[in-house]
Amino acid sequence: MLLGRKRGALEEADLASAESLLIERCQKKDPAAFASFIDQYQARIFGFVRRMVGSAEEAEDITQEVFIRAFQHFHRFDSRCSVKSWLFRIAHNLCIDHSRRAGRLPSSMSLNGDPEAESELEIADESWSPETVAIRQELLDHVEAAVAAMSEKLRAVLLLHDREDMGYGEIAEMLGIPEGTVKSRLFLARAYLQNRLASEFSGAASSELK
Amino acid sequence: MKKGDTMHDQDQMKETVDETRLNQGFQANIADLVKSLDAPEPNLAWRAALSERINAEAARCRKRRRAFFAVKSSLAFACAAGLACFIFVRTGSRTAPAPIAQLSPSASSSLEATLVQAHEEADTASDVVGSGLNENRTPMDSDASYWGPDDADSL
């Protein structure tokens, strides 16, 4: 057990030193070193941007811009935060710039009543029957649509926390808001999602009954 | 609901939301749902285009750095040359050769005496030996010393 923990710590130290070596090379504008960061984070950054801007083509352009800017300004990167959160910060800022340029105002979010008073959402158990898979896929499509309809502020916090596994403090630092605000936005985002899904699924059920 | 009302709601929520509420009930279910969303990936053409742009950017950076280095080194060279000139002018004016008038009288008289002695020795030598013929300058078979029949007629 102790040996395993020691080995884990050693592996972590190795990873950290490898990453710091890569950072050093990136700061000297080494494209090969930067390529390893691209490989590591391109899917996550693209996924985040894709959900923030809505269009896949725009997301591709913005994601490229994220990496180009990161490469250009790597000398400004300080090791106080991780490369991952630095890249996400650039991505978030570019998404905000993009929506400002597009003249899209953040949509306001409506909460009808106490979210906790609503019935809890039933999530299907992991099963591989075609029907369950189809239902789950439909549910995920609805979740995607609901996330897209959410205000940018809530969406960013929801995606960063629930999809990218970032901590409250990390998100707060990245977005320049207090930790309490991160928590409240996350709560509101999930509540909005739950309300929307509940209303859509109850609407679908009632239309089927009719 | 207006935007202002939404912000008011958010302010109220700040006070009430704590971590335990975020990790239980429907909040945890929604978090699981969001986590299980598909992860869209950019295609290979996108990746190739990005690599191309990164390489171009790296080349531009290298060129800029090289130009900066050239400017910096030429500037440093110019500064060094200027400094060297300045030092040379300053030290040159301090160690200029003293004028002849300032030479000591003893040094001047000894030079004069040496010159006079050398002249007298050369004079004595020419009196004793004679100037003679210099074979190298007036070779015996040169045109000037040859007497042909034409020369006899001209006499």
List the helices and strands and how they pair.
The complex is a heterodimer of chains A (210) and B (155).
Chain A lengths: L1 H26 L3 H23 L2 H17 L10 H19 L28 H20 L2 H12 L4 H8 L3 H31 L1
Chain B lengths: L2 H14 L2 H4 L3 H10 L8 H51 L10 H25 L19 H6 L1
Number of H/I helices of chain B? 6
Shape of chain B: elongated
Q: What oligomeric assembly is this protein in?
A: heterodimer
Following the backbone from N to C, one meets helices and strands of chain A in this order, namely: HHHHHHHH
Which pair of chains forms the biggest interface, and how many residues does each contribute? A-B, 54 and 42 residues
Strand content of chain B: under 5%
Provide the β-strand percentage band of chain A.
under 5%
Number of DSSP-assigned strands of chain A:
0
Give me the secondary-structure category of chain B. mainly alpha
Largest sheet of chain A: none
Average pLDDT of chain B works out at 75
Radius of gyration of chain B: 52 Å
The percent range for helix content of chain B is over 70%
- Number of helical elements of chain A: 8
The largest sheet of chain B is:
none
| Envelope shape of chain A | globular
Report what the structure shows.
The complex is a heterodimer of chains A (210) and B (155). Chain A has 210 residues and is an all-alpha fold. Chain A is 74% helix and 0% strand. In chain A, helix 1 (2-27) packs across helix 2. Chain A starts with a helix and ends with a helix. Chain B is mainly α. Classes of the chains: A mainly alpha (210), B mainly alpha (155).
